[in-house]
Amino acid sequence: MAAAVLVATAIGYLAFLGAATSWQYYLSVDEAVTDASVLVGHRLRVSGCVATGSLLIGDDRRQATFDLEGERHVLHVTCSCLLPDNLTEGIDVVVEGVLGADVIRSDKVITRCASKYQPADTTAIRDEGLAPPAT
Amino acid sequence: MRVLGEACLLMCLVATGYAAVLSLMGGSRLNRGHSRLAAWAALVGFAALSVTLVALAWALASGDFSYQYVANYSSRLLKWHYRLSALWVGQAGSLLLWAWMTAALALVLRFLRTLDPVLRRTAFGLVMGNVCFLVAVMVFAADPMAASLTTPREGTGLSPLLQHPNMLVHPPIVFLAYATWSVPCALALAALGRGRLNTTWIHLARPWAMAGWVLLGVGLLLGAQWAYQELGWGGYWGWDPVENGSLLPWLTGTALIHCMLAWRQRERLKKTAVSLAIVTFGLCNFATFLTRSGIFSSVHAFSESPIGWMFLALMGLLLAGGAVLVVRRRGALAAQSALSHILARETLILISTFLLVLFTLVVMTGTLVAPLSKIFVGRFVQVGPAFYNNVLPPIGLGLLAATAAVPLLQWGAPPTPARRRLLVLCLAVSGVIVTVALLAGMREPIMLAVVGLAALTVVTLLAAWLYEARHRQSLPLWQGLLGALRNGRRKYAAYCVHLGIICVAIGVTGSSLGTQRKEVTLDEGDMLNWAGRQIHYLRLEQHQLSDKLVAEAVLQVARDGSAPVELRPARHLHLLQNDWTTEVAIESSWRGDFYTVLNAGLGGGRVVMTLVDNPMICWIWGGGVVATTAAMVAMWPVSRRRTEIVDLDSSPVAKSFSVEQSISPASAA
């Protein structure tokens, strides 16, 4: 029993060290903007919707800028990372990076992946028949 | 057909509920009339559910978009096998498949011959209750037979990321695993409820637990392989909450199988065994909650649904009910023998169980940090891979160490002097191997530890096999070796499972520590030397298929002067969804993978690519194959004739005498 307690304590300490070096806040856009004064300079994850008309992707798909919309606020995002294939306007994403003044400098973008249990609303595409090829 | 399917779903709800109630009535006395009626009700429910399943499958195959489910997940542009696989892609279809599988397994349980019909009947009733729950969730919250408000001319189609061979089998295997784990849980609850806490429930539950372990392990590996081949980031595991969710029951299931062994051999770890049987199935429901509730940000699912909370409630009910029963039966669950020695097998099982539970708690903590922090701190806080990479290696090494020594240990007694000498010899041999690895340039302490423990596992297995062949059979050595395998098939198969897990550990460690990544921009004709390979980018090819546009970069990759291999990393534009996907190209060998990703085309044949050198990756897939195959060999029933051949090491009698004493010339005379 003593050995078990000792091992569990050691593991708990390692867990604390691991958490201390890798934890980050996970916030909505509104929370990040509201608490920006406290969170500037912190590494965090922010979820929101890519604003329509805001997405600019570099030719090499390693750079992108877009606005991330919450319910009340908007946060500008600059990405320097390999971008997911399905990054488009109007979808929910989670960006990971450092919060600056009114901007997140992101090095990771997670998109909605193949959501198995909630289909996308593509009524307009379906009513047209086939979707037109991308230009 | 849709209306028929809907009616059958309702019929199934009533029939399975009726079967569950009838089976659980009657206390410990077996009422044959009730039992027969419950079996018929279950058959009717299964038949009705089958009709619903066939109706949905037919609708998917024929492209009947009057079904809302078909319109949401299928299209006429899909190949037929992906159209059918849409059956398990969505919420309602996956629940339907899961319920159907559980109902089928319940019927198998019902009609199995067993020494304890009361136990079987009670467990059958509980599994039927689970089927009734799944059908109720469908009826009230996720109807697979729901009609489209308007019938579109074409469906939404399947997400391109899910159009992968692994996705044809990964979800059904995982759901079959979840369905299978419901049986040991039901048997444990039945044994606790009816007070039948002898080894009968172990004999009944063990094959189901082994099957659930194999299926879930295969499901995890297929999912990891899909992520590796499809998501294009060069990794196979991201500590995503949904991934973690499926890992948790596999870990507790591993502990359960070993605790069952300790109960059967030494009447120990009884409370742990019944608790783990209940917890494992509870964690299957927890995994479903993680996937379907939407409270976690996950690369797998962003959906929000009340269905997830129903599964969390079921898990809570199982755990609460199980805890009450375990406390009530604590007297009968007390250990019948003390731990004999630190180097006895049951002691190592105790240590391994502790480490596996610790592993599970760490993974669960990392997964639940976000919602718990929201409750206690007011903000979501997440931990990254560094949390897991810091904590889990020591636990993993402890598990490998406990695994390595087992073949030379005994039940209920310390190792004999001869076995002790062999163990020391094995330690020396593995020490030599570690020294060789060190001199060859391997410097990472964790990799050295894994190599050492892997060598110890192999050497102790060979030593135990040779020892048994020489000392237990009065035959030539080669006949002794075959005889030892024949007489101890399950035991040696279990050791091979350990070998498979060791291979997985080697692959995980090697790929985690040795992966290199490079992003390059290349023009047609460019050559590049990197990671010991010569890479020649020949050209960019583009062509159109019926459902997509394809852009492929043609590469020739050579290593150490060997013949070049052609790789074609590509990007596909799926026309219906207007989505691009990345199709990686991988060159695999036992040393590792060379992984290429086409990120973008810049025009004029210029491309941006990511190159990844992933050492030892195939050891993960190969180790999984070894472990799975060996586990299936271990699961195979022992023939009646073979059960008469006593395996001294696995028998409780072994605690009272040594192997040398039993087969010495003096005792033989």
Helix content of chain B: 55-70%
What is the β-strand count of chain A? 7
- Which structural class is indicated by helix and strand composition of chain B? alpha+beta
In which range does the helix fraction of chain A lie? 25-40%
| Whole-number tally of structural domains of chain B | 4
Could you describe the largest sheet of chain B, including whether it forms a barrel? 6 strands, antiparallel
Low-pLDDT runs of 5+ residues of chain A are: 118-135
Q: Which range does the strand content of chain A fall in?
A: 25-35%
Characterise the protein shown here:
The complex is a heterodimer of chains A (135) and B (669). Chain A has 135 residues and is α+β, with helices and mostly antiparallel strands. Chain A has a domain of 90 residues: OB fold (Dihydrolipoamide Acetyltransferase, E2P), CATH 2.40.50.140. Helices cover 27% and strands 34% of the residues of chain A. Chain A is built from 4 helices and 7 strands, in the order H-E-H-H-E-E-E-E-E-E-H. Chain A has a 5-stranded mixed beta barrel. In chain A, a hairpin with a 4-residue loop joins strand 4 and strand 5. The C terminus of chain A is likely disordered. Chain B is an alpha+beta fold and 669 residues long. Chain B has 4 domains: 158 residues, Up-down Bundle (Four Helix Bundle (Hemerythrin (Met), subunit A)), CATH 1.20.120; 193 residues, no CATH class; 173 residues, no CATH class; 103 residues, Tick-borne Encephalitis virus Glycoprotein, domain 1, CATH 2.60.98. In chain B, the strands form 2 sheets. In chain B, strands 3, 4, 5, 6, 7 and 8 form a 6-stranded antiparallel beta sheet that branches. In chain B, strands 2-11-10-9 form a 4-stranded antiparallel beta sheet. In chain B, helix 6 packs across helix 7, helix 9 packs antiparallel against helix 12 and helix 14 packs antiparallel against helix 15. The C terminus of chain B is likely disordered. Chains A and B meet through helix 1, strand 1 and helix 4 of A and helix 3, helix 12, strand 1, helix 13 and strand 8 of B.
